[in-house]
Amino acid sequence: MSESEVVVYANPELLAAAAAARLVTRLVDLQAAQGSASLVLTGGSTGIAVLDQLRRSPARDAVDWSRLDLYWGDERFVPADDDERNEKQAREALLDHVPVDPKRVHAMAASDGEFGDDVDAAADAYARVLAAHARPEDHGDVPGFDIMLLGLGGEGHTASVFPESPAVYETERSVVAVRNCPKPPPTRVSLTLPAIRRAHDVWLLTTGEAKADAVALALSGAGEVQLPVAGARGRRRTLWLLDRAAAGKLSHVYQPPTA
Ligand SMILES: O=C1O[C@H](COP(=O)(O)O)[C@@H](O)[C@H](O)[C@H]1O
After folding, report:
1. Where is the signal peptide (predicted)?
2. Ligand 1 pocket, 38 CB below 6 A?
3. Measured from the CB, is residue 86 less than 6 Å from ligand 1?
4. Closest CA to 62 of 114, 98, 91, 94
5. How many C-beta atoms lie closer than 10 Å to residue 224's C-beta?
6. Is 42 touching ligand 1 by the criterion CB < 6 Å?
7. Ligand 1: distance of its center to the CA of 205 in Å?
8. pLDDT tens by residue, 26-80
9. Dihedrals φ, ψ of 157, to 5°?
10. Confidence of residue 2 (pLDDT cuts 50, 70, 90)
């Protein structure tokens, strides 16, 4: 697994714009090198702000959206038209505005979808989607995602893997149903930490003082049971993209001047 790298931006707006630019560059490079790319999206304020910035950027047209496989790291198990749904927010922020191939947009089921309110069936179905897209070189049932975007909570959750919850102890399954989440909505579907660690690059995006303790603990060797985000690592790269407030409890990282 890769060591963590940290980049701090002066404010949340700069972080979102710079992460969007970084995403364009990386996706274009990947498509040039291997023909297509895969990207795992996150919910949460910072992840959606990055997609919003991407939509506004003229450089977005450099990406061949038709040759991009899109997945989600977690989903709130609510009806498809619920504003809380990560997929709905991502579509409104970006996906409805770029020519993605619908067959390559791999969303998790909604609670009014084909599995009804059976969240276990929804999780199992997504595990099958991942397995169907894994290649021989991935050595398992999860694709080697090129880039995975993740957010985090102040208590240390990432995707929908919460501290001390059953999901954080999962070692076999790639996707699990999550119930009784401390953060609403309470029922979710999430990739597990072993599935997250199949990604080549993991980018952890967060802003705000409320995340500063979790960031500092994760970067100082906290255990993943108490702080799941500490277990989110990419095989090639683990990149933390923070604003000054989220990085406020880190010493020895470069802090940019206030913009
Ligand atoms: O509920 C969720 O929250 C986290 C973080 O969200 P934020 O708004 O505090 O940045 C996110 O990573 C996750 O995907 C989402 O479902």
Report:
1. none
2. no
3. yes
4. 98
5. 19
6. yes
7. 10
8. 999 999 999 999 999 999 999 999 999 999 999 999 999 999 999 999 999 999 9
9. -75, 155
10. confident
Spatial neighbors of 173 by CB under 8 A, at least 6 apart, are: 123, 127, 192
Closest residue by CA, ligand 1 atom 1: 44
175 in the Ramachandran plot: left (φ > 0), alpha (ψ -120 to 50) or beta? beta
Atom 7 of ligand 1: nearest residue by CA position: 44
β pairing state of 74-76 and 188-191:
antiparallel
243 - beta bridge partners? 9
Task: Give yes or no for a cis peptide into 194 (omega within 30° of 0).
Answer: no
Does residue 170 surpass a pLDDT of 80? yes
Sign of the dihedral defined by the CA atoms of residues 10, 14, 20, 25, in that order: negative
Token pair 């029922």 in the structure block, residue: 187
With the CA atoms of 246, 90, 87 and 26 taken in that order, what torsion angle do they form, in degrees rounded to the nearest 10? -80
The CA-atom distances, in angstroms, between 166 and each of 30, 39, 181, 189 are: 35, 26, 11, 13
ipTM over the 0.85 cut-off:
yes
Place of tokens 């770029």: 98
Q: Which of 87, 32, 84, 24 is nearest to 53 (CA)?
A: 24
Q: How far is ligand 1, taken at its centre, from the CA of residue 153, in Å? A: 6
Structure tokens at 90: 């991502």
Q: State the alpha helices, DSSP H only, in 35-160.
A: 45-56, 86-93, 119-133
User: What pTM was computed for the model?
Assistant: 0.97
